[in-house]
Amino acid sequence: MTENVTGADRELHAALNLFWASGAETTSYPEIVAATGLSRKALYARWPDKQALVEATLEGYRRTVLAGMLETLTREGPAAFWDRLEEATRVPGWNGCYLMRTGSGPLRTEPAVAAALAEYLDALHEAFRRRLREASLPVPPDLAAKQCVALLALISQRGAAEGAGPAVADLVSAGRRTCGMSQAAGTGGVADRDAG
Hints:
This protein is mostly helical. The chain has helices at residues 9-22, 29-36, 40-46, 50-76, 78-89, 98-103, 111-132, 141-162, 166-178.
């Protein structure tokens, strides 16, 4: 949700950015009030509790950022997916996937958070598995897809802990290699395995 936001979504976008940067579980109501510009009363009128606000931010993130990532993978393939992820990691302040970060932290036991994370991980796995069936890989496509999802979780965790850096770049490169591609960004698709 990094595009320009207007109207009623502005407060939701501000809360998302705050939760993404600081972690939803540790963010206080005074911090939310300051970030959104809403009074405590106005916040409660829109979202009856912090969990409802977290769920609303996760839904917005899923509809925009994650849907775009899945669409890239589904329509354009793994090379375009890894390129897009690498580009995202270069944005100043990037700190991992908001859903993975929230879903692996203290809020992971919240049913809506757990369901959103499980749904996204399953969708990623299936999209990678379908696209990797076209590739000539040393492992079955299902295993390569699971490795890609595991790498994405690790990329997100490293991003949340330390931001983008050499470790994240190495993991993105590992994702490309898992898909049978060369290490270089934008080299094409799974057929370019031996291009580098």
